[in-house]
Structure to design on (1015 residues):
């Protein structure tokens, strides 16, 4: 063989390869036989697709963040848009499902993050912080959500009672669907607990006002300082309104029943927080103190005991601390049973709130010498003696938490100036109607919020078991869509196509587009075991910076600090995009039959069923569970 | 441009200059810095290649094979146990006639555990159908790497360039790094004669029946034979461009030699120093460095050793139960030559034991003065 004409494959063999063998191999010379095993002719004749008994499908699956969000936020959608620096799209996707993004971006207990699959990898995506950023941007830019266009839908007159998050969400949804909505609010300013409950260091009031302005801009009207208390019957409201949504919250106040307390010494947590929000001294009552008191100095050198273990207790305690008080929370069980959110408890402790567990208050022992307790400290703080008793945990009660049982003989006293009672609130239908029958008819009969009275709907804290802002919003959206369907004669209480996730939240965005499905091929939330984690690399979670405990306890300025754009993009880019194809092309790369085809122009992927043998390699190599094998 | 770099980094630079498109590798001492540097080059964008960090060497070679089948230029690197782990796929690469290039850093095979150099690992893969080239210094490493791509792609066989652990891999020397333009001119992009192509789909690597399997191996041997000429051609072309001479065999002071030392790798440089010592003493000794071991340059070897009295073949390997592997090659190549020299096989430098110029000169002087002793001689081994 000469050096220059050396060929790896004898040239004649190539012809054979492309056109098939012209003669039996047995009759070939060595030069006619190719040196490697190559099929004569193309393999396209083998339709390996005929072996298939399961078929891959590109699917959209419900991401767990959205399944976990009681509002029904399209979290994955807006994270994707942020990752692409498409702010217009990100804000649009957010504002189409969420009336109060800047609020939830601050105070929501972010069940989305609890559900986030990344939490089982290297830390959940800081979804709430991204929502905060986008919500603020939407408000600054004055972006409005999409509204129903075109004719053919009937427009009704609707009354919403209560301007807390639930009433606001219902009003926002109904206004977008073309109805005339009037919100009746007992207080002077709208917002419900967002204005009068949650302290400003977590939710600045100008943030709330910006969100309320957006509601006014889409046509919602407010009737303030007007309480609904119907003399006749609620059903009569139907003369003036096509539907009524009642979201008056849980305004009944429970008391811990401390006996012997002088007037004004024990105050409910909600009242306390409302006063702080109003800018009036939350305590004391004039009968106890003389002289000029302003909000900022009202509690200096006062010893406050807060009773309870929920979020109101924590907020009241942290507010009192900011007004100069020495604060102790007494809780009858242990930290593990505390209903307050872990982060809030931690923040309170860091700021210097004392918490004494397994303690119940009994009564005020006026002027009695302290029983077995240390002498009064700190310059005579604590005018009164509060007698308490220690508990131990017994058997679990209905809530599954272990019941506190008093230990006899364990009584002791603490010095106190004021007691803030934060043992809980309950829905009180008597504040809406004096009629006992109607009161009992106001219980919700289904998740849509229908009641025993035709055309009267309820939601939010008034009827819901989960008392959070996000749940209140979710309920408002859901009832609003149901009301619209009723008014358009197409309500089917059993149709749940638009409902999503663990809390059956609803997507208004899809409904507006005329869709009656949430848009997922598989409504089961993607689990972390469905993902192929080999394709995801670790990157730590970023959080919002916070003012230091020393600095922040001096006033009510917001603790959380704004994020920079760079951080928002980096954090959004951590999203796995559970259940959504992002055209990464792994399926195309790994398909052993070359059956996954990518359009060179659109980059779109599809399956050539002639050659897909159903092996499922594409599905298992998909980093984000966006391919399913179907029978 | 001249740069002071290790031989491992010389490999990396050569791979970069060769515009390799897929690198699949698993790290192993002393090869690691080859691929470490390459991954950084990819990361920096100096090299536009897909870098696959495989889970082991068997997969690294498999990935390189898969990539090569699609017609791209593929590279990997390994050492010792890693090479042994690849063994099955070495046969696969050659049997599929794929021009994969691999840098093999010579390290002894365990146990007993060691990380130092000898040639046991690469020489135990002698019969896989891979071409093998042994380098003596960092510059040769760079030149050989570039040549390997050219040769492998013309011959249609994989090529392994072999370098000593630490003595080369981790030792820095001044290396002339050629310009990209020069390398592009010498080594254009790969043009595969056959490849996996979705637009012209064929099945590869399937069954070949008894009526044609053997012919495929006839082709393979044929390619190896043709390779000898192709290597000489390409080495001469490279020499024209850069002025550095590489040939299948690298002679030193052989013109009037009566005896010669034969060896490969850095020991071949040491041998030239030993030759100088022996010449001082009036002994007419030369040396032959084996650069190309597969295909074996039979004619060149016969020509170069014809008329010698003694051939001292130094092996950093042993085919246990027989003797040094180069010594066996020499004996078989020279068997039917009439004026063949006496061949003395010396086993030396196993497991990284140093071969010094003085020690080697001493050994050779003893052999010349006292005569060899049979098939196998152990240099520098502690005996009672
Ligand atoms: C101190 C505190 C802190 C909290 N912190 C958080 C938090 O950080 N995150 C979170 O998710 N949730 C938090 N919650 C819970 C959350 O605030 C509530 O779940 C949510 O506000 C309920 O919304 P709603 O619209 O149902 O009721 P509300 O917000 O209570 O609003 C009800 C509104 O109805 C009005 N109203 C009542 N009766 C009448 C009537 N007869 N006529 C007219 N108007 C009437 C009220 O004045 C009020 O404005 C907190 C609650 C409290 C008390
Ligand atoms: S509303 Fe709450 S649960 Fe929903 S995305 Fe925002 S933070 Fe998460
Ligand atoms: S990774 Fe992204 S899509 Fe998945 S749960 Fe978390 S935020 Fe949602």
């Amino acid at each position: 063989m000469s050096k220059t004409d050396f060929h790896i494959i004898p040239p004649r063999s190539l012809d054979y390869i492309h056109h098939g063998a012209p003669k039996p191999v047995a009759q070939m010379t060595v030069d006619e036989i190719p040196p490697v095993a190559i099929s004569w002719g193309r393999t396209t004749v083998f339709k390996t697709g005929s072996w298939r008994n399961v078929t891959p499908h590109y699917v959209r699956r419900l991401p767990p963040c959205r399944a976990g969000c009681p509002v029904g936020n399209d979290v994955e959608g807006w994270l994707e848009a942020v990752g692409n620096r498409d702010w217009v799209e990100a804000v649009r996707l957010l504002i189409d499902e969420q009336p109060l993004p800047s609020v939830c971006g601050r105070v929501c207990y972010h069940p989305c993050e609890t559900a986030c699959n990344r939490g089982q990898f290297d830390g959940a995506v800081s979804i709430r912080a991204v929502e905060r950023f986008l919500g603020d941007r939407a408000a600054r830019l004055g972006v409005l959500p999409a509204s129903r266009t075109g004719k053919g839908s009937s427009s009704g007159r609707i009354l919403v009672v209560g301007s807390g998050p639930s009433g606001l969400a219902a009003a926002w949804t109904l206004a977008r669907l073309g109805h005339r909505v009037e919100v009746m609010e007992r207080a002077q300013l709208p917002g419900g607990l967002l204005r009068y409950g949650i302290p400003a260091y977590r939710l600045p009031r100008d943030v709330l006002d910006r969100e309320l302005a957006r509601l006014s801009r889409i046509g919602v009207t407010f009737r303030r300082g007007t309480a609904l208390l119907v003399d006749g019957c609620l059903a009569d409201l139907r003369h003036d309104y096509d539907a009524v949504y009642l979201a008056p919250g849980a305004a009944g106040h429970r008391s811990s029943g401390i006996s012997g307390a002088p007037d004004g010494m024990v105050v409910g947590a909600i009242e306390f927080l409302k006063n702080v929000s109003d800018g009036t001294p939350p305590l004391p009552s004039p009968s106890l103190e003389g002289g000029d008191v302003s909000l900022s100095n009202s509690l200096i050198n006062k010893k406050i005991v807060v009773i309870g273990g929920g979020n109101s207790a924590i907020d009241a305690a942290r507010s009192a601390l900011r007004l100069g008080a020495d604060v102790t929370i007494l809780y009858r069980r242990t930290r593990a049973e505390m209903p307050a959110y872990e982060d809030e408890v931690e923040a309170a402790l860091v700021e210097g709130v004392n918490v004494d567990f397994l303690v119940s208050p009994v009564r005020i022992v006026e002027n009695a010498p302290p029983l077995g307790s240390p002498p009064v400290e700190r310059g005579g703080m604590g005018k009164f003696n509060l007698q308490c008793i220690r508990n131990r945990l017994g058997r679990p009660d209905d809530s599954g938490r272990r019941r506190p049982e008093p230990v006899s003989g364990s009584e002791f006293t603490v010095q106190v100036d004021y007691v803030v009672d934060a043992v809980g609130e309950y829905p009180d239908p008597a504040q809406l109607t004096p009629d006992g029958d109607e009161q009992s008819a106001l219980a919700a009969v289904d998740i849509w919020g229908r009641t025993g009275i035709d055309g009267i709907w309820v939601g939010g804290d008034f009827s819901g078991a989960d008392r959070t802002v996000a749940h209140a919003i979710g309920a408002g959206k859901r009832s609003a869509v149901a009301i619209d369907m009723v008014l358009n004669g197409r309500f089917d209480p059993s149709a749940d196509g638009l409902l999503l996730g663990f809390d059956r939240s609803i997507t208004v965005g899809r409904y507006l587009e005329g869709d009656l499905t949430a848009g997922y091929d598989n409504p089961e939330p993607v689990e972390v075991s469905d993902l192929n984690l080999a394709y995801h690399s670790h990157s730590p979670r970023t959080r919002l910076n916070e003012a230091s405990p020393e600095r922040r306890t001096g006033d009510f300025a917001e603790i959380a600090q704004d994020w920079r754009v760079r951080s928002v993009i980096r954090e959004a880019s951590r999203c796995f995009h559970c259940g959504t194809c992002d055209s990464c092309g792994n399926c195309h790369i790994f398909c052993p039959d070359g059956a996954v085809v990518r359009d060179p122009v659109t980059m779109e992927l599809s399956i050539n069923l002639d050659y897909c043998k159903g092996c499922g390699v594409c599905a298992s190599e998909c980093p984000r569970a966006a391919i399913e094998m179907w029978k | 441009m001249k740069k002071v770099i290790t031989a491992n980094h010389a490999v990396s630079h050569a791979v970069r200059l060769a515009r390799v498109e897929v690198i699949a590798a698993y790290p192993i001492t002393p090869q690691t810095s080859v691929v470490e540097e390459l991954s950084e080059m990819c990361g920096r964008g100096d090299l536009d290649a897909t870098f696959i960090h495989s889970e082991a060497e068997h997969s690294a070679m498999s990935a390189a094979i898969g990539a090569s089948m699609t017609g791209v230029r593929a590279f990997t690197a390994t050492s010792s146990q890693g090479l042994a782990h690849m063994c099955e796929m070495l046969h696969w690469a050659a049997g599929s006639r794929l021009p994969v290039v691999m840098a093999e850093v010579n390290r002894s095979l365990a146990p007993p555990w060691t990380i130092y150099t000898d040639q046991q690992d690469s020489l135990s893969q002698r019969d896989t159908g891979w071409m093998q080239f042994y380098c003596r210094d960092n510059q040769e490493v760079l030149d050989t790497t570039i040549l390997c791509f050219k040769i492998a792609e013309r011959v249609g066989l994989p090529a392994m360039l072999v370098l000593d652990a630490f003595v080369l891999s981790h030792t820095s020397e001044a290396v002339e790094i050629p310009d990209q333009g020069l390398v592009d001119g010498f080594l254009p992009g790969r043009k595969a004669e056959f490849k996996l192509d979705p637009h012209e789909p064929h099945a590869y690597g399937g069954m070949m029946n008894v009526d044609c399997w053997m012919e495929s191996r006839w082709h393979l041997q044929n390619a190896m034979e043709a390779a000898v000429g192709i290597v000489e051609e390409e080495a001469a072309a490279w020499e024209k461009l850069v002025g550095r001479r590489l040939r299948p065999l690298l002679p030193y002071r052989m013109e009037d030699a009566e005896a010669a030392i034969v060896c490969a790798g850095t020991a071949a440089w040491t041998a030239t120093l030993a030759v100088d010592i022996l010449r001082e003493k009036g002994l007419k000794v030369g040396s032959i460095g084996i650069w190309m071991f597969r295909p074996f340059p039979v004619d060149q070897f016969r020509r170069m050793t014809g008329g010698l009295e003694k051939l001292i073949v130094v092996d950093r390997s042993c085919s246990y139960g027989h003797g040094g592997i180069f010594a066996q090659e020499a004996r078989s190549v020279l068997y039917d030559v009439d004026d063949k020299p006496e061949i003395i096989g010396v086993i030396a430098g196993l497991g990284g034991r140093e071969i010094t110029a003085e020690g080697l000169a001493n050994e050779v002087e003893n052999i010349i003065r006292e005569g060899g002793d049979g098939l196998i001689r152990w240099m520098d081994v502690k005996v009672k």
